[in-house]
Write a structure and sequence with these properties.
This protein is an alpha/beta fold. The protein has helices at 21-30, 46-49, 52-59, 70-74, 87-100, 169-182, 198-204; strands at residues 3-5, 11-13, 38-40, 62-66, 82-83, 110-112, 125-129, 138-142, 146-150, 153-154, 160-161, 165-166, 186-189, 196-197.
Length: 205
């Protein structure tokens, strides 16, 4: 999944799975969107960075990720950590998925840090390090109150906290609490079509 923000120089949040670059570019053309200058990757899982390298070749966009996930991107790895529930099936089938949809290594142009601002891209936002799902999982928090949280939360079905994959489950809970304390009014997860509201988030904790 990917989000396009028509802000500043144009920003893409995440880059979908491998082979989705044509679909993403066709969507941007359909909505007459400026070519993104910047791709913010929320974390290093194949369904979030899979088309990043291809999109960069097509657009020249810079790729940014938290420094703790840069190594996994460069090795084209999807660290699942400790899996729960249906996440155990993903661990079993991930090698097959990666053979069918080969992952291209991604070299980040920018290594992000917690609380780093992105004003150089005319993007009124900051990086919030929200580890747990992966070590470098991060939220893009706009000054206007929208938060793009990757797979920290999900809106597939009823809104819920990540429950299948984490490198550190305790850190994940702390990250959810941190996002709550920042009081975003709209939260855009990595999966699910509808944003999560501040009231939704209160009920999840």
């Amino acid at each position: 999944m990917a989000y396009y923000l028509r802000i500043g120089q144009g920003v893409l949040v995440d880059a979908g799975s491998p082979g989705e670059e044509a679909r993403i570019l066709a969507f941007l053309e359909r909505i007459n969107a400026p070519t993104p200058a910047f791709i913010f990757l929320t974390h290093s899982h194949f369904d979030h960075f899979g088309s990043a390298a291809a999109l960069q070749r097509e657009t020249g966009a810079l790729i940014a990720v938290h420094e703790a996930d840069a190594g996994a991107l460069a090795r084209a790895e999807t660290p699942l950590g400790i899996t729960r529930g249906r996440g155990r099936w993903t661990r079993a089938f991930l090698p097959l998925v990666e053979r069918l949809l080969p992952l291209e290594p991604v070299r980040a142009d920018m290594l992000l840090e917690d609380e780093q601002r992105l004003d150089q891209f005319d993007l009124p936002a900051r990086v919030i390090h929200t580890p747990g799902h992966t070590n470098g999982s991060s939220t893009l928090l706009l000054d206007s109150g929208e938060a793009f949280v990757g797979d920290l939360l999900s809106a597939t079905g009823s809104p819920h906290v990540q429950r299948y994959y984490a490198l550190d489950w305790e850190a994940l809970k702390s990250s959810v609490e941190r996002v709550r304390q920042l009081r975003p009014h709209s939260i855009y997860p990595g999966h699910g079509r509808n944003p999560i509201t501040a009231d939704d988030l209160k009920s999840l904790l």
